[in-house]
Specification:
The chain is an alpha+beta fold and 286 residues long. It has helices spanning 21-31, 35-52, 106-110, 140-150, 184-196, 200-203, 209-217, 238-247, 250-260, 278-284, and strands at 2-9, 13-19, 61-67, 75-80, 84-89, 115-121, 128-133, 155-164, 167-178, 222-232, 263-266, 273-276. It has two domains: 2-232, 3-Layer(bab) Sandwich (Hsp33 domain), CATH 3.55.30.10; 238-284, HSP33 redox switch-like (CBS domain Like), CATH 3.90.1280.10. The radius of gyration is 20 Å and the shape is globular. Bound molecules: zinc ion. Zinc ion binds next to loops.
């Protein structure tokens, strides 16, 4: 379980922060992620958690797809209004390259020549879809650019995942949203603070989200407005998988059972397997 804390700063800036180690470790376990894949997906899941917290209704749903054309392939992360996030990655075992400064080369593994697409379903007739170009493939910068470019929302985003071999030892993210009434002097201080917000995973090592917010923004008038639990949890279930099997059509479904003995559907987000034997298939199409 991870705790996300939100604060209003100087009456003109909304800051959300999450300590996301548990979420990243669940993703590593489910997807058997190599370190660079864990860093990329961990950052993306952390951002999805921060964005999902904005939802007003439990049914609201967000999907973000990072398609950088790099070795990791497409990274998909989802968040809902229940405080649940989940993710999928095309190539989870990409070899890890370490840059000269000792950091994992997430940008090259994600790729830079692609797009970030965000789909928000908040119960309107059509879901909202926004797309922007990737800036660096490092995820945080890409989301910051997305907010500015696609949602006309000036934001600062910083995300970090610290790993010890195949385990996440600390992770977290901070999302700074500047409200239209933000005074110039606050804005210029924020720029300096955001610039200093480096090595995010260390900041969250042994610190809660609230402590990180107070550490960086303590000089401003600060009100904690929310504190919620977020978890990596999949919302797949028999009913959803039934629909997928039904979409095959009865003839094709039965043909698979004839050839393979059963139909097996594996959820990409949590690894759970659903199986259908002949009886189950026939019952489904009855
Ligand atoms: Zn699932």
């Amino acid at each position: 379980m991870s705790i996300l804390t939100k604060a209003l700063i100087a009456n003109s800036v909304v800051v959300s922060a999450i300590e996301s180690k548990d979420i990243v470790n669940k993703a590593i376990k489910i997807h058997n992620l190599s370190p660079v894949a864990a860093a990329a997906m961990g950052r993306a899941l952390t951002m999805a958690a921060l964005m999902g917290e904005e939802f007003k209704n439990k049914e609201d749903y967000l999907t973000a797809v990072i398609d950088g054309k790099g070795p990791l392939g497409k990274i998909t992360v989802c968040a809902d209004g229940n405080g649940h996030v989940k993710g999928d990655i095309e190539n989870p075992v990409v070899e890890t390259v370490v840059k000269q400064d000792g950091h994992l080369d997430v940008g090259d593994a994600v790729g830079k020549d692609g797009t970030l697409t965000v789909i928000k379903d908040i119960g309107l007739k059509q879901p909202y879809v926004g797309t922007s170009q990737l800036v660096s493939g490092e995820i945080a910068q890409d989301f910051a650019y997305y907010f500015a470019d696609s949602e006309q929302k000036p934001c600062g985003v910083t995300l970090g995942v610290g790993l010890n071999r195949r385990r996440c030892k600390s992770a977290g993210g901070v999302w700074v949203q500047i409200l239209p009434n933000c005074p110039e002097d606050v804005l210029s201080r924020l720029e300096t603070i955001m610039y200093a917000m480096d090595e995010m995973s260390y900041q969250f090592d042994g610190s809660t989200a609230e402590q990180v917010i107070r550490r960086f923004f303590g000089e401003f008038e600060l009100t904690i407005t929310e504190s919620v639990d977020i978890d990596y949890k999949c919302n797949c279930g028999k009913r959803k998988i039934n629909r997928i099997v039904k979409s095959l059509g009865k003839d094709e479904a039965l043909q698979i059972v004839d050839e393979m003995g059963q139909i097996e559907v594996c959820c990409h987000f949590c690894g759970k397997k659903y199986t259908y034997d002949r009886d189950a298939v026939e019952k489904l199409f009855r």
